[in-house]
Amino acid sequence: MKIKNSRLDAIRLILSTQEIGSQEELLNELAKEGFTLTQATLSRDLHQLRVVKTVGVQGKYRYVLTRPHQYRHDGSEGEMRPIAPAVMEVNGFLSIKFSGNIAVIRTKPSYASTLAYHIDAYNFPEVVGTIAGDDTVMLVISENATRGAVLKALRSIIPNL
Amino acid sequence: MKIKNSRLDAIRLILSTQEIGSQEELLNELAKEGFTLTQATLSRDLHQLRVVKTVGVQGKYRYVLTRPHQYRHDGSEGEMRPIAPAVMEVNGFLSIKFSGNIAVIRTKPSYASTLAYHIDAYNFPEVVGTIAGDDTVMLVISENATRGAVLKALRSIIPNL
DNA sequence: ACGAGTATTGCATATTTCTTCAATTTTTAC
DNA sequence: GTAAAAATTGAAGAAATATGCAATACTCGT
After folding, report:
1. Residues of the domain holding A54
2. A135 part of a folded domain
3. Which of A5, A84, B77, B88 has a CA 20 to 30 Å removed from the CA of B24?
């Protein structure tokens, strides 16, 4: 199903870049992109993508992507990369600081999970894992990686870094 | 409000130990604990706790806590912790990796907060604290603890480790 | 190309969740 | 202690989301 897959991609993209608070709202955005579907189908799409409705800082609801299933993560055996994410720039980035083997990335409110999603999806060997709050991503650096290497990796998805 | 706070604690505990798929189900569990409230109030409680409804591995819906509780965790005195949950095995564990003084634990989707909750509840001296995302727990190791000690401690609640 | 099996979808509706409003209850400031 | 302000709650209904079913579209093997 070509249409469905590109629609799911469109959903991911929209949720990564906009604050969507209801399925109807998302439906409108999808319509702008040329996708015609009903709320029923969208509900099923979101279920399949494991999208969740969270509560933002000001109490607003927002749909956000959860993470892709992580098959592996440290270059050891049995490679099996998750879906190659579309090359895209992640916005919402504010700053990055290091402490020990941890990088703390600040984002605009509610953008953290989106950024973490993209970092995870790329499966950088420099990154052991990430955790996202609302506006902060904590990233654990691999023991054999330098901060410079981490920055270099992140630059491929964060434009203004 | 004493009642409300203990009710929120009860909600946290229930969501950390059971797979709850709807507010009505949670309402029943709360009733067993002696809390009488309506679904309307529960909806507001969940909003306040920023609980989210996720999609579990088999496609089941499940309410999960978004952030681990900020009960304190450094062994010092005088702070109330949640009731230590009955000794139980936590499932959903996938892998654990270390980097510096951090352990990154991967879980099945949506199991991270549950696992973090239990780790917190046990108050292991080897663990300074945890934060949890959807499928990842980051655990900060005490300065005087070894990785082996952490593993040993975790083995008491994670069966297949 | 054909048919069986599978997947996708819309419609209509069921189910679930959220919110408004008014009525308490609790807290705060004197 | 008392009055005003704030918080909590339930009832009811609005809003949002999920799903059974039937129709249609696609896939795969032959």
Report:
1. 2-65
2. yes
3. B88
